[in-house]
UniProtKB/TrEMBL annotation:
Residues 30-105 form the ACT domain. InterPro entries: Acetalactate_synth_ssu, Acetolactate_synth/TF_NikR_C, Acetolactate_synth_ssu_C, ACT-like_dom_sf, ACT_dom, AHAS_ACT, AHAS_small-like_ACT. The keyword Amino-acid biosynthesis applies. Its EC number is 2.2.1.6. It holds the Pfam family ALS_ss_C. CDD domains: ACT_AHAS. It catalyses: 2 pyruvate + H(+) = (2S)-2-acetolactate + CO2. The keyword Amino-acid biosynthesis applies. Belongs to the acetolactate synthase small subunit family. Residues 1-21 are annotated as: Disordered. Keywords: Amino-acid biosynthesis, Branched-chain amino acid biosynthesis, Transferase. This is Acetolactate synthase small subunit.
Length: 186
């Protein structure tokens, strides 16, 4: 999931090519956007992405300051350095946006995601799903004679890995929150 992609048309590797060879590398960025908590703000932010053809890999929104009426939108998106800079600049121009932070480049950050997995399994597959859940530190939050609902928290990569292992064991459904992230330190 964290593989680097090179855009088409950037195969020239001449010693005389003075362009920055890393400028076409797409990578994932986590953006924290502090906005006024008012109707229509999320639609405007999403409209900025869809109107320019940018994709959103993950999106979470929650109020962070009840008295100040502020919310935090955490967006995970992919793009070249130039595209990410353009996204940040355009987000900063939306009137109810107070701050835009690129947590990927501003220093160390903590990123977590919560997911629920429903696994329908009996016999050996049931035992194996419980063993793997223990390894991944997933909690059983619901259980019937034929299924489990596991709760897991961690990086998106950890959750993706857990999903891949649960698929052959009877994965029925998945619900994911999207990434929540904060810069480390003060």
């Amino acid at each position: 999931m964290a593989a680097l992609n090179i855009k088409k048309g950037s195969s020239s590797h001449s010693a005389y090519d003075l362009r920055d060879s890393h400028s076409d590398v797409e990578r994932s960025h986590t953006l924290a956007v502090i906005v006024e908590n008012e109707p229509g703000v999320l639609a405007r932010v999403i409209g900025l992405f869809s109107g320019r053809g940018y994709n959103i890999d993950s999106l979470t929104v929650a109020e962070i300051d009840h008295k100040g009426h502020r919310s935090r939108i955490t967006i995970v998106t992919r793009g070249t350095e130039a595209v990410i800079e353009q996204i940040k600049a355009q987000l900063g121009r939306i009137v109810p946006v107070h701050e835009v932070h690129d947590l990927t480049v501003e220093g160390a950050a903590v990123e977590r995601e919560l997911a629920l997995f429903k696994v329908a399994a009996t016999g050996e597959k049931r035992v194996e799903s419980l063993r793997l859940a223990d390894i991944f530190r997933a909690n059983v939050v619901d259980s019937t004679l034929e299924s489990f609902v596991f709760e897991i928290t961690g990086t998106s990569e950890k959750i993706d890995a857990f999903a891949e292992l649960m698929r052959p064991l009877g994965l029925v459904d998945v619900a994911r929150t999207g990434v929540a992230a904060l810069a480390r330190g003060v």
